[in-house]
């Protein structure tokens, strides 16, 4: 309840009336109840903080390249809908990723949109989505929003794939889609190749799709794209999902989904027209033309990750898990206390301790610059 001032209709003095500010509008009845019961994807307020919570590339372009990009974006015809330049971006990404023969790709407004479109396209009777947990929250959210069943299969104690449980779940549920994040978020794990291959084969044998989510591919030791190139016939049901967000363009929102051309052609039918901004596409083309700059940034992040893991291993009471991404998952004695202590010291990380029982007392740290990492590590020591 809050007070509001209303004027007397007869011209008399103003009076205070009670207005119920929390009464929902009647139109809410037309919004699905399951949607109203969900939580929106949360983005933490990072004002004035050292932001190490969202796995962003900490490196900006050099001033000269920023000036070139600004000039180039200034020439974009923003009065026109995106056209042939989007085809140029598709071709550039296909070359950059070295797609297997017979594969093509579709673009998304980030990989999040593509995950939603996959659920939409695969919504056939009895459809479901299956993924290891803990994993990226959008797999389950996209299923729920589309009215599909979601089947989460817990990882092992050290966040390894439970191959037997995955195979049993595929046989039992016959999902339309199996997601395998490679590496996984929030654990940073790059799973055993043999286990992944057997899961891929089992899902193919029952007629479903596998989506290898390679959002963190710039920081990983290997890519499943190599397996697809080596054995294209065994990967006709496999899609590889990537994003330029971790590449270094989180603000540009460019994702892409690659797979056999016939499959991509069907999935592309549910993509909204003009879903990728012409400005974002031009930014991505510029970045791909300077891919060596971003590759150097990825090498530096990998080196900083190794140093961070070494330092974390020296802190009593902290267990850091191996990572092939630009993040590190660690377990501390009290995640809430450590998270609050870091915030008081101006450092923002992600408290994932309530996301899944396996993540109890876990924090996820983004790998930043050497200076940022030094600040983070000292703040962590002080917070413990």
Summary tags:
384 residues; alpha/beta; Aspartate Aminotransferase, domain 1; Aspartate Aminotransferase, domain 2; 2 domains; 7-stranded mixed beta sheet; globular
Care to give the gist of this entry?
This protein has helices spanning 33-36, 63-74, 84-97, 110-121, 137-146, 163-173, 193-205, 225-230, 245-249, 261-267, 278-289, 291-313, 335-344, 370-383, and strands spanning 2-6, 15-19, 50-51, 103-108, 128-133, 149-154, 177-181, 209-213, 238-243, 255-260, 319-320, 327-331, 347-348, 350-351, 362-366. The protein is α/β, with parallel strands linked by helices and 384 residues long.
Secondary structure elements and their pairing?
Layout: E1 2-6, E2 15-19, H1 33-36, E3 50-51, H2 63-74, H3 84-97, E4 103-108, H4 110-121, E5 128-133, H5 137-146, E6 149-154, H6 163-173, E7 177-181, H7 193-205, E8 209-213, H8 225-230, E9 238-243, H9 245-249, E10 255-260, H10 261-267, H11 278-289, H12 291-313, E11 319-320, E12 327-331, H13 335-344, E13 347-348, E14 350-351, E15 362-366, H14 370-383
Parallel strand pairs: 3-13, 5-6, 5-7, 7-8, 8-9
Antiparallel strand pairs: 1-2, 4-10, 9-10, 11-12, 12-15, 14-15
Helix pairs in contact: 3-11, 4-5, 6-7, 13-14
